[in-house]
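EI: anyone free to look at a 343-residue chain?
SC: sure, send it
EI:
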Amino acid sequence: MCALTLVLLAMYLGWRRFYRVTPGTDSNLVIAQAAEVLQVVDQTPYSLPELPRDGNRQSVYREVLVHTTKPDRPSQEVQNYVVAQGDSVFEIASKFNIKPETLLWANYDLLNDNPDTISIGMELKVPPVDGVYYQTKDGDTIQGVAARFEAKLEDILNWSANQLDLTEPILQPETWLMLPGGHREFRQWIIPVIPRGQAGVSKSVYGGGACEGGYDGAFGTGGFIWPAGNHYLSGNDYWAGHLGIDIAAGEGAGVYAADSGVVVFAGWATGGYGYTVIVDHGNGYQTLYAHMSQVSVSCGRSVGQGGNLGSSGSTGNSTGAHLHFEVRFNGGFVNPWYILPAP
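SC: here you go
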């Protein structure tokens, strides 16, 4: 029934009450007359429900509809999340509708800006919105913190969970603040590029898989294939804090060279990578394969495109078996989606 119909019904019932219906008048006749008036306006035929009787009188009962509208106010509280089997920074962030970097920045003490250092049982702080969750240091001021993380001062002050004293610019040390919209640079740990014709990196720093270098051998074709049987992800995608993709690969599944080249890293890598292989393709490209359960190649060996490098696994900092795959070109990182064929 439209709003106009309801208004006219109220007016008619009010008229009936004001002028009084002659005693003895059939109530059904009065209601029928009201219905006729309403049908003229609404042009929609309908019938009124039969009204309950109370003795010789007929009464109209109003149905009580209880409906409370609660404002949709997002929580301002930081939540704790315990990492479970198969979790990744990317998936946890998606679950809480925040960006992966927000989760990394809030847990620098645990993750050191490296999403591959996540481990089962780790308790992470999950901010309610994107930005930086920051623990203040001695001498910090509200204005200084806002400028350092490029956040708006009014957003920090208006975030009620921060509980700031607007008259006191100096912040107490070790106070946690939410800086909505803030951001900072990543502090990233990576295995450096190891050119085939130069000396390798220190084993004591980067792990026993670091090769001496000075190799010669196969060159890449310039095209790439998927390094695993599956062509989809099971963990982190490529983004500013994660410079590779995590390809779905069960424990022991084959890992293959995305293009032909020479092995310049083969074995254990520090920094959370676990058992790792790096292939130099001789054309500016290098590819990296990490978290492997077994490495089947050695330093200086030439491999063809599709050649077996070992088996996938969950070594290093990993919450489940998968293949971490990176692509580098002339020392810089390339999004693997740009060079891999469509799945």
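EI: The two ends are 54 Å apart (CA to CA).
SC: 👍
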